[in-house]
Write a structure and sequence with these properties.
Helices cover 30% and strands 18% of the residues. The protein is of the alpha+beta class. The longest helix has 10 residues.
Length: 50
């Protein structure tokens, strides 16, 4: 399992898709549009700059 590529994150952002990945049990990472997921934190700055 791996995280989405920078291209995938940019594409999801532009397309308005909420991208969630790297799910482990009850934990997961939200890469785009975290405001749509209750309790999610803002995306990592490194990915937002990619």
């Amino acid at each position: 399992m791996s995280a989405p590529t920078a291209l995938a994150v940019r594409t999801a952002q532009v397309a308005g898709i909420t991208l969630i990945a790297v799910a482990r049990g009850a934990e997961f990472e939200v890469f785009t549009h975290p405001e749509r997921v209750e309790g999610a934190e803002a995306p990592r700055q490194a990915l937002a700059a990619a």
